[in-house]
Write a structure and sequence with these properties.
alpha/beta, 16 strands
């Protein structure tokens, strides 16, 4: 059954380019499978959003969700295509993006001989994803070797081509973290952002792992330059579809709103810092006023206070 999905945006605004067809799996599934293009789907409910592009040569998957939901996500992909997974691309190293890597890779099959992956589908990510996933915790690496990217890169971007689709994996320096990428499917006109863009909350600035507020704003500006709106005919369906790290499919206007919000909060905190205010005084001044209801949270893994503190530390260079 097909329904209409309205991309995230301001209540009451109607942007035809933000409306895409949605196809839902059986009710027994905890996942939502949303069709963006004839051969392009987004799977939500498995941790971070998972993007799937497929054709006669196989499937390309962006992010693998959590380990607990990997089997369900793989089952959903098998309903979309009987072709094997050829590549898994990681947009970052956070657990909800990479914990399903090993199962996804073993369920797929490498193009060609697959010598480096023993026939399993290769995993692509920047070098810092490998560094993060191989970190030692109590003497053991954070993830098993089979879950690490097998094709890592440190340059600005990596280009792939499958199913007559140019795929550009673009590194984002010091944004949400030190290991972010944005993935552009050029023919499908879909961009997968990872946690660089997450309209469900204030951006997570992972200072411990190289995230910065300025890098986040730079990445959002680059994303805005990359995507195209349906202007001058906004009532017509069209424009680049944006798959965020979490939440609903968006289009350019939502990314612009999000970038503006982040910039306003950054500028507000910068002004308070210049007045010599302490972190606690800045929190009390409520620099997120006007945005807190939409993006903020007083509990959970990423609160409004944590966001303000991350911005403050980034602007002042203080680590604690």
């Amino acid at each position: 059954m097909k329904t209409l999905l309205l991309a995230c945006g301001l209540a009451g605004s109607v942007v035809a380019g933000a409306v895409v067809a949605a196809q839902k799996p059986p009710a027994a599934s905890a996942l939502e499978v949303i069709q963006l293009q004839p051969n392009f789907y987004m799977i939500s409910g498995a941790g971070a959003n998972i993007a799937v592009q497929f054709g006669r040569e196989g499937a390309v998957v962006v992010d693998s969700g959590t380990a607990e939901m990997a089997d369900s996500a793989l089952a959903a992909i098998k309903k979309l295509t009987d072709k094997p997974i050829r590549w898994i691309i990681n947009t970052g190293a956070d657990p909800d993006h990479v914990s399903g890597n090993e199962k996804f890779s073993k369920a797929g099959h490498a193009l060609g001989s697959g010598i480096l992956t023993m026939g399993a589908a290769p995993i692509i990510g920047v070098e810092d994803v490998v560094n993060r996933m191989s970190e030692l915790v109590d003497g053991k690496s954070r993830y098993p070797v089979a879950a690490w990217p097998t094709e890592s890169f440190s340059r600005k971007q990596k280009a792939l081509y499958l199913n007559e689709e140019p795929i550009i994996v673009m590194r984002q320096l010091a944004a949400h973290s030190d290991s972010d990428t944005i993935v552009f499917f050029r023919r499908s006109d879909v961009v997968v952002t990872g946690d660089v863009f997450d309209p469900t909350r204030f951006p997570v600035i992972d200072i411990e792992h190289g995230g910065t507020i300025q890098g986040e704003i730079d990445a959002l500006n680059g994303l805005i330059d990359l995507v195209v709106s349906s202007v001058p005919l906004p009532w017509n369906a069209g424009g680049t579809l944006v798959v965020p790290g979490h939440g609903r499919v968006c289009e350019q206007a939502e990314v612009v709103d999000y970038r503006d919000m982040v910039t306003v909060v950054r500028n507000t905190i910068q002004r308070l810092v210049s007045k010599g205010m302490t972190l606690e005084q800045i929190k009390a001044a409520n620099p997120t006023q006007g945005f807190r209801n939409q993006y903020g949270s007083d509990s959970g893994p990423w609160t409004t206070d944590m966001f303000v503190e991350a911005v403050y530390k980034g602007l002042t260079g203080k680590k604690s």
